[in-house]
Specification:
Elements lengths: L2 H6 L3 E2 L7 H9 E3 H4 L11 E3 L18 H4 L17 H19 L4 E2 L5 E3 H9 L3 H6 L1 E5 L2 E5 L4 H10 L2 H4 L3 E10 L11 E10 L5 H16 L3 E9 L3 H15 L8 H9 L13 H5 L10 H17 L4 E2 L13 E8 L8 E7 L3 H4 L8 E7 H7 L11 E5 L2 H16 L4 E3 L6 H10 L4 E5 L1 H6 L1 E6 L4 E6 L3 H9 L1
Parallel strand pairs: 4-8, 10-11, 15-16, 15-17
Antiparallel strand pairs: 1-6, 2-3, 5-7, 6-7, 8-9, 9-14, 10-12, 12-13, 13-14, 17-18, 18-19
Helix pairs in contact: 10-14
The structure holds histidyl-adenosine monophosphate.
The site of histidyl-adenosine monophosphate has 29 residues, from strand 9, strand 13, strand 14 and helix 16.
């Protein structure tokens, strides 16, 4: 794919309630790729990318008056990452790897297997699952049209996983499936600490288990996992939305309660009264707080079956010793939920106001809604990895290298490469200083990468058939014969 074309590709916010996506972007502002960039080598000259024309500051290339996207790109300014989308630098990646390793280990203990689904899906998948009237679908999706097909860069993971579950008929292969995933999600939210436009989730989904045993197990698994990461102030909120019948009855009751106070509500909530009244309970707007406080509880509406399910969940959580608080006004920003809902909040570390570490719940009707076998109950959660990293203090599991090879001079430079290869073949993480330099500078670097040992080789060592092995923590050193080097390093690292 042509890089420039990607940069210019319109990631238009999908807005189904306002204008049909395809018509808006195609009619107002499509260009051909050839038009956008004449120097491109692409043979896709018939590709059409829909884009929003961007305005660049005066003095940028736009001033040249040339038409097309290329002319609009500022040539003199360094490009920076898109707002709300962050680089994860090598110095930070250790903690990410450590988290990912711990997450995989924790959920695999419970029988979850990894699933990887595409980052781009058909837009209707999200409209039908997450739902119109939700912030995600109405305002936050990065959607675009490619070859007349409306597509969206995933705002969350569940819909894609359910689509894959249905498409590959996993229900026919096994009665229950447990899958997990890790990866980036994209929502055009207002960026803040802990809230990004590209963020990473880790999540699990279970298909074919109606609970509530698995609901309790999942919440307990999360609480223990967060505790193992030393996250403080964990708070578990649970609620039940009931099944389809309950949801409809509660919706009616809520609208009847809110309608008389419509004029006092915020503009967003007045709109939601028509489109998605349950979301009003989640409003942070000052004007809505009094109305929310007096709102009827969904738990007063749930039918006997739903109530039994919820009571049993609470009983199991109590038995497991999982701390929890029932929060009858807990609703979540996605429409597919039914019955169990939960969120886990944290405190401490660098976590600011965005302190919801994870959220999830049952979505018993979604498999059928997306064309799968009716009656397959499902539950899942996703956690925000950035928020976990902010809330916790665990370090990277491993240094960049265990051994740092510091050659002095040209002859030693060649020997260092051989040494490095031997150590890696023995499974030892080794970094060779290929640029040379003074011994002092090389040892400084060895410490910076977290190496435990440094191997110094110069002409003298080469002549004597030895290598100087420095234990950087113990500040001790000894010559080791070339033949016994791998064994000596192994012994030191053991
Ligand atoms: P969600 O509540 O939208 O649920 O997101 C889950 C978690 O992702 C949040 O609790 C938060 O930690 C993190 N998160 C969400 N938005 C952002 C953002 N803009 N920046 C940083 N972190 C964010 C879901 O996505 C559902 N798919 C969860 C689920 C799975 N339900 C059933 N299965």
């Amino acid at each position: 794919m042509n890089t420039l074309a990607v940069m210019c590709m319109a990631l238009t916010r999908h807005s189904p309630s306002r204008t049909p996506l395809a018509r808006t972007s195609a009619a107002t502002c499509s260009v051909t790729l050839t038009n956008a960039r004449r120097v491109g080598t692409s043979n896709h000259s018939s590709l059409r990318w829909d884009f929003i024309p961007r305005t660049y500051p005066r003095g940028s290339a736009g001033k040249t008056g040339r038409s097309g996207v290329e002319a609009r790109l500022p040539v003199s300014r360094a490009l920076s990452a898109v707002k709300g989308m962050n680089d994860i630098l090598p110095e930070e990646i250790g903690r990410w790897h450590a988290f990912e390793g711990r997450f995989r280990a924790a959920v695999e203990l419970f029988g979850y297997s990894e699933i990887r689904v595409p980052i781009i899906e058909a837009t209707p998948l999200y409209v039908r699952s997450v739902g119109e009237g939700t912030d995600i679908v109405d305002k936050e999706m990065y959607s675009f049209v490619f070859h007349d097909e409306p597509l969206t860069v995933r705002p969350e993971g569940t819909a894609g996983v359910v689509r894959a579950y249905v498409e590959h008929q996993l229900a026919a292969k096994e009665p229950t499936s447990r899958v997990y995933y890790l990866g980036p999600m994209f929502r055009g939210e207002r960026p803040a600490r802990g809230r990004y436009r590209q963020f990473y989730q880790a999540g699990c989904e279970v298909f074919g288990d109606a609970g509530p045993g698995v609901d309790a197990e999942m919440i307990d698994m999360l609480v223990r996992f967060f505790a193992s990461l030393s996250i403080d102030g964990l708070e578990v909120l649970v609620n039940s939305l009931g099944g389809k019948g309950t949801k409809a009855a509660y919706r009616e009751r809520l609208v009847a309660y809110l309608r008389p106070m419509q004029a006092e509500l915020s503009e967003d909530s007045r709109r939601r009264l028509e489109t998605n009244p349950l979301r009003i309970l989640d409003s942070k707007h000052e004007r809505d707080q009094a109305a929310i406080a007096g709102a009827p509880s969904v738990l007063d509406c749930i039918d006997d079956d739903d109530k039994r399910h919820f009571d049993r969940l609470l009983e199991l959580m109590t038995k497991l010793g999982t701390p929890f608080r029932v929060e009858p006004r807990l609703v979540r920003g996605l429409d597919y939920y039914a019955r169990t809902l939960f969120e886990i909040k944290g405190r401490g570390g660098d976590l600011g106001a965005q302190n919801t570490l994870c959220g999830g719940g049952r979505y018993d009707g979604l498999v059928e809604e997306l064309g799968g076998t009716p009656g397959i109950p499902s539950i899942g959660f996703a956690l925000g990895i950035e928020r976990i990293l902010l809330a916790s203090t665990f370090g990277a599991d491993q240094a960049t290298a265990s051994v740092f090879v510091a050659p002095l001079g040209e002859r030693a430079g060649a020997e260092a490469l051989v040494l490095g290869r031997e150590l890696r073949e023995a499974g030892i993480k080794t970094l060779v200083e290929t640029r040379g330099g003074s011994l002092k500078a090389m040892l400084r670097r060895a410490n910076a990468v977290g190496a435990r040992l440094a191997l110094v080789v110069g002409d003298g060592e080469l002549d004597r058939g030895v290598v100087q092995l420095k234990d950087l923590a113990a500040h001790a050193q000894a010559d080791v014969t070339r033949d016994s080097l791998v064994a000596a390093v192994r012994e030191k690292l053991a």
